[in-house]
Specification:
Blueprint: E1 6-12, E2 17-23, E3 29-33, E4 38-40, E5 45-47, H1 49-60, E6 64-69, H2 81-88, E7 91-95, H3 98-109, H4 113-116, E8 124-126, E9 131-134, E10 137-143, E11 152-156, E12 159-161, H5 183-193, E13 201-203, E14 219-221, H6 222-228, H7 238-250, H8 258-265
Parallel strand pairs: 3-6, 6-7, 7-8, 12-13
Antiparallel strand pairs: 1-2, 2-3, 4-5, 9-10, 10-11, 11-12, 13-14
Amino acid sequence: MSTQPWVHDFFDQNTNTFSYVVTDPDTKQCAIIDSVLDYDAASATTSTQHADLIISFIHQHQLSVQWILETHVHADHITASQYLKQQLGGKIAMSDKIEMVQHTFCSIYNLDFEGLNLKDSFDYLFAEHEHFKIGNLEAYNIPTPGHTPACLSYVIGNAVFVGDTLFMPDYGTARCDFPKGSAAILFDSVQTLYQLPEDIRVFLCHDYLPEGRSEFICQTDIKSQKQRNIHLRQGTKKADFIEMRTKRDHSLTMPKLILPAIQINMNAGLFPMPEINNISYLKIPLNYFKHV
């Protein structure tokens, strides 16, 4: 019996996002992690090319989808979770801290939290450190807030999927300037990850090519992060990290897709209910972030 997952990555260069199919080789049960729905901002249209690659892969290898996992509420792309569930089945799941994100952004978008039943949009919400299975593979989550309050990392066999918490060592760590983000909390979250075995495989949600590198990479390990992460290596002082992260975050622009993405992703990928003309509409808070 295998105790290690088979991991296959899918890269969306438009959003610099890696999605994963994580499979138990013995049972062919699998999880999809951090999927992407293609979105053209100019025309406000969605399409499924990236998700269809995942579907083709799963059909080709005769896999059965058990979980559709989100590491957090993404601000840089729209999740394809609902489309994948419709085509393949599986439970859409993430952290039970999602309500913190939903309450915060319902206020920003002036949405009725209770009326939208956002609490019930996900099929399953994980408690902190909860154990679960993918086929026969043992898995559990590690809460890694800081980038958002509802960030989870998933440990599956000898692999950990860290979302935006860490990037490649030559690119550093996640930004912490979104509502309810915290550089101090992110520092503590990374220290928790650094307690994992040094040879565990670390799979990232994004990669951005820093100067001097020409190839997108999705995998590293804890030892490399501890030794070489340019923002937070082993021995970095918390105060120094907070100062660096805060200064860097002040220089960053908003993610291009944050305003459409958040209101869909915090609702498990569900689009707003169509209006009387059978068209769904997104809300944009004009000038709100200008003053934040």
